[in-house]
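User: What would this chain look like folded?
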Amino acid sequence: MLERLVERIIKNKNKEEQRTKVGQLAGVLGLVSNVVLFLGKLLIGFIASSVSIMADAVNSLSDMISSVLTLIGFKIAAKPADKEHPYGHERFEYISGLAVSFVIIIVGVQFLQTSFNKILEPTDTIFSIRVFIVLLASIIIKIWQGKMYVGLAKKIDSQTLKASGKDSFNDIFTTGTVLLSALIEYLTNWRIDGFIGFILALYIIYTGIRMIKDFIDELLGSRPSDQEIQIMEARLANYPSILGYHDLLIHNYGPQSKFASVHIEVDACWSLTYAHQIIDMIEKDFQKNLDVDLVCHLDPVAIHDTQYLQVNEELTNILADLGEGLKMHDLRIKGNNTLQFDLVIPEGVTEDENQLLEEIRQLVIERIGNYHLDVRLDHNYLL
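Assistant: Here's the prediction, encoded as structure tokens.
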């Protein structure tokens, strides 16, 4: 049923409009279901005099606020690029998610105190069949809600909806714990409601802090997934006309605005026009098939120069002998006595960089000749 509804609202819409419509649908469905959950839990919480049920009700209230922020976030994120924001407004989705995270933490802190007070001054929880039915229905609704968020998140690749889905599945655990504690109090007369509420409040705070970290990472520019990197690398390796590539960099300004740059190694004997045709083909391929705006930088390689090939081979062997996973690219022989190249230092290398360069200089003098080294250190964290 949800699939049919989604297909109906995105029919005849472009990709950006589809994303906005699906995000807004998730916000509306989340808002309606969370209103029902909040009112039902709040009423039962008062009837049962249970602080843990009321804590769970306010957790649903925070989810209502999250749904509203989701609606606002997708609305603003859909705005086109303008003079002040040339890359669009899609990152506002992360800002709305960050606001949701702070709301969750505030709710958690408030109920931390409420639960602590009930630990100090415990009161009886009144359990009834109505309490059981409402809490069980809440769990069923949250299961549906979590699946709805996750399904729509996959459809539009939304971190905000993924976070909402994760929060919904977390709520299944919290509501289930509340239900279990009410049953235990009813069967044993142990007054554990305050303790359960306290634990849930800590869990709510932890969830909010974890979500803040995730959204801050997105705003700062987090590392792309290994799968995303592998897909791009596999595509680059599939072009037989180029000699190789390096310095692949990937960044985004929102789920729909992905950019990348890469250095493409080509035969130095190629004409500039032919080389441009090749990289132009690669850029168009990335845009069409991966929806990535790629910018290629040409690196001509003198593969027909005997001196270059000998120096390149020996320098590669020197770096291999040093270990540490060292690599180099952009080798140039300038004049008669200078080797210019970029030295790629993988993450985790602990040796002092100046000492490392000195070791390379000594080995170059011993095995290649009395060359001066002009080295640029390259720390590529996508490796």
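The chain is about 65% helix and 15% strand. If you want, I can go into more detail on any region.
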